[in-house]
Specification:
Blueprint: E1 3-9, E2 14-21, H1 25-33, H2 35-38, E3 49-54, E4 61-67, E5 73-84, E6 88-96, E7 108-117, E8 122-129, H3 133-141, H4 144-152, H5 155-159, H6 162-167, E9 172-176, E10 180-187, H7 191-199, H8 201-207, E11 214-220, E12 228-235, E13 242-252, E14 256-264, E15 276-286, E16 289-297, H9 301-308, H10 312-327
Antiparallel strand pairs: 1-2, 2-8, 3-4, 4-5, 5-6, 6-7, 7-8, 9-10, 10-16, 11-12, 12-13, 13-14, 14-15, 15-16
Length: about 325
């Protein structure tokens, strides 16, 4: 059990948990900022979490649900207040409805996570600040301390596998729930470089090409909410043309980009009538570059499986490898 102390201070309205780990600070930090990893311990073992969004930047948001053995769910959110890379971050943590919106009948609290080096590795101090004594007592009565102990007791197992996460540079796919897919890739470049590569047409045309033998003659994109974009690809020589079009829903440079996407063909140039996906791109700095996380929401599970079966992820890996070779700006 990594927890070394738990202190409740009714006068200061705080709950402070100190935990020690035998890994470098950066490994512990990445466990909290990578959605694939935090969802393996953010919740007691019998209530594993699924993170649908995890923005590690001021003004960002995280959204998650914990599912019990009988299918019962408890959902929550984080509103990111501040981030000091590798050292600390602060969030407002609260209960949420199924749609991710704050639960009006439940309190929220501030949580500060401080990471520090120790002689044996690293120490995490988590301080929860409550709005009132009544809220502190309410949440303690809901076994908040016991839940934190059970959740943090799982971290050592996750940390033991962090070297595997860091070493795997390929494009990784996870099915999330019934209608989503999460694609993750570590890119050798800064967050700013990767953002520009995803939002500047002349850069997109260098790398977003899929398998060799294709070109991108049309690339119209502006990272402005409400704008419409259009991509078109063709095999060298002009055959087998297709593309995608959609709207920019949200743009928070250089960390978050949300778009809709529909496939176009010469016979259906506006993509009408076909499936439309919601694509949420999040960029997070790491010790080795940038973690790219793309959460794709499909109309249903059948559509998800149909699109994944096309070899989409292999094509994405080919493009991301090309991005690292020749698509990043200087």
């Amino acid at each position: 059990m990594p927890i070394t102390s738990v202190t409740t201070d009714p006068e200061a309205l705080t709950l402070t948990v100190v935990a020690d780990f035998t890994v470098p600070v950066r490994r512990l930090w990445d466990a909290y900022l990578d959605p694939r990893q935090i969802e393996r311990f953010w919740g007691p073992p019998e209530y594993p979490a699924t993170f649908f969004r995890h923005d590690a930047a001021p003004g960002g948001r995280s959204s998650y649900c914990m599912t019990g053995p009988e299918g019962d769910r408890s959902c929550g959110y984080w509103e990111w207040v501040s981030v000091d890379d590798g050292r600390s971050f602060e969030v407002r943590d609260g209960f949420a409805r199924e749609d991710g919106s704050p639960h009006p009948d439940m309190p929220s609290m501030r949580m500060v996570f401080d990471f520090a080096e120790t002689a044996l590795g690293s120490r995490l101090t988590t301080t929860t600040l409550f709005g009132s004594l009544a809220e502190l007592e309410q949440l303690m009565a809901m076994q908040m301390e016991e839940g934190m102990r059970a959740a943090m007791g799982q971290i050592d197992g996750v940390l033991a596998e962090l070297a595997e996460y860091a070493a795997d540079r390929g494009t990784l796919l996870q099915r999330v729930g019934d209608d989503r897919a999460r694609v993750t890739r570590l890119i050798s470049g800064s967050v700013e470089q990767v953002w520009r590569a995803h939002t500047e047409p002349e850069l997109l045309q260098r790398w977003l090409l899929g398998p060799d033998g294709w070109e991108m003659p049309v690339c119209e994109f502006a990272a402005e909410p409400g704008s419409r974009y259009r991509y078109e690809w063709a095999e060298t020589g002009g055959a087998n043309r297709f593309g995608f079009t959609g709207d920019v829903v949200e743009a928070v440079p250089p960390v978050r980009l949300v778009t809709t996407e529909a496939m176009t063909t010469p016979e259906n140039p506006d993509g009408s009538g076909g499936p439309v996906t919601l694509n949420e791109l999040t960029l997070t700095p790491t010790a080795d570059g940038t973690r790219l996380t793309l959460m794709i929401t499909y109309p249903d599970a059948e559509t998800r499986e149909m699109i994944l079966a096309t070899g989409m992820v292999d094509g994405m890996e080919t493009s991301y490898a090309r991005l690292e070779r020749e698509g990043l700006p200087a």
